[in-house]
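Record passed on here:
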Amino acid sequence: MKIKKILNNNAVVASKDGQEVIVIGRGVAYNKRVSDEVSEETIEKIFTPENEEMNSKYKALIADMPIEYLQLSERIIAYATLKLGKKLNESLYIHLTDHIHFAVERTNNGLTIKNGLLWETKQLYKEEYEIGLEALNMILEQFGVILPEDEAGFLALHIVNAEMNEEMPVVKKMTKIMQEILTIIKYHFKVEFDEDSLSYYRFITHLKFFAQRLVKGTHYNRDQFEDMLSVVRGKYAGSYECALKIRKFVENQYSYQLSDEELMYLTIHIQRVVHKKDSQTI
């Protein structure tokens, strides 16, 4: 790889197989000039930005970022990937590094930001929130700075964002919609959820993708599940009635029309999460 541009002592833009990449490593640019070869032993991370906008963001962030923050983000992402067992969008590296750097600076200056979605994040994204808490431990270990619990929630949402390949405003709106639907179910049945149950975990997963479709305005193919919906409606009348309340709410609040398939799956998941003993055969 030949160096095309030096961003700082720890980062360069290079050419790899005819493609522009960003190479990070402590001292990767030390005593180097444009057109020199990158020393393989100094490479810690190589980014291949998916578009020009992301390329510009990477360069701008990395040029001014102490390498300790970049290395810490790499550790957190490796931990998150292992814990979640799934690939995370590479953009997380940028968003996470930027957020942590800003959060540490704010805290050192006595400034804190309240997380208005902290309660919802803890309830809806338990695994991601636990990763956020572990990230706070890593930050304390690395920089000696104690960040408030609110920051664990912010970091969790960045991870959710990377799981679903969405921008943060979309994830925040999804979270709000999920909480609204859960509230409708709680009020309808006058129940509290067993948040440690498998049925609750499955329901949250279903809601996450449903909320994503709602925010993006996409749908299942409609009118293909009318017969199955009729069976489910007859067998689980109470859960179907609750699903109809949710359909009316999202139509009025978000101008989104549930398909028959979505209504059917929503009814089944409501039945599972509210009446676990009655729905083991589904």
Remarks:
- The chain has three domains: 2-50, 67-165, 170-278.
- The mean pLDDT is 89.
